[in-house]
């Protein structure tokens, strides 16, 4: 495991902002830290970076107990935080990145090729000589992300990397990050409110509220546990004509919506047989398995009053 939080609590102004929190994160996994405003996400991240220390419990990163400033400083060699430090506004993108590469002690030749690769992945090659002060918010976020990737961190910590970005730019940033980490085996923990398309990047999720963990684990497992049955979406040539057939054969396990049938199947093994039966009895245009999302899981838990 790269990170272990063992019964960690943190009190601020007499309030348990993080309350008996336990979770772990395996190498190469991407954890999305989710929860409403004030849930304790940023505090969790500050605990993780050693900026604040827990009142109870312990934090173990790369098998080292995070119990002193010295350990936190040592761990900094393996950890990058996106929002650490600011950019030099009057310098260009490339100048900024060279300065940071130098601060990270990256040899000049390697820095040149790494910066070129990152600018390419993040689609900023044509803007590399632009001054930072001329950049849009989305571009700045990209530069901060590139900067945090430069030291090739084993663990990358992101606090709302897409905050304030429009949906398109935010998706683009995540796409860039995804294509960069695909080959790099970087472990990531990312606090975010951006739930759309999160499964594209996140392997694990942790939903917290009022300082407590509500659910945590691998996203696929949590989704499968939450929706143990499979739902098939069946597009029909003539939905009205097919109503009787579904009534007689699937009684309460289906509903019609927008000319489509949504059929719940309890036993996954029976899916091929069911599809064969349906296609031989009604005119089917297409059948898809309904894939549930992290966003649905989040709001389902929220709607049920768990959060
Ligand atoms: N330095 C501080 N002084 C006082 N209260 C604090 C401090 N830091 C955090 N808190 C309180 O702790 C709680 C959790 O805050 P935190 O910033 O960790 O939440 P968050 O989940 O990151 O929220 P958001 O999504 O709004 O960024 C909040 O009630 C906040 O007011």
From TrEMBL:
Name of this protein: ABC transporter ATP-binding protein
A single Pfam family it belongs to is ABC_tran
Q: Which UniProt keywords apply?
A: ATP-binding, Nucleotide-binding, Transport
The ABC transporter domain covers 3-235
InterPro entries on file: AAA+_ATPase, ABC_transporter-like_ATP-bd, ABC_transporter-like_CS, ABC_transporter_ATP-binding, P-loop_NTPase
Family designation: Belongs to the ABC transporter superfamily.
GO molecular function annotations of the record: ATP binding
- Record keyword ATP-binding present: yes
Fetch the SUPFAM superfamilies from UniProt: P-loop containing nucleoside triphosphate hydrolases (SSF52540)
State if Transport is listed as a keyword.
yes
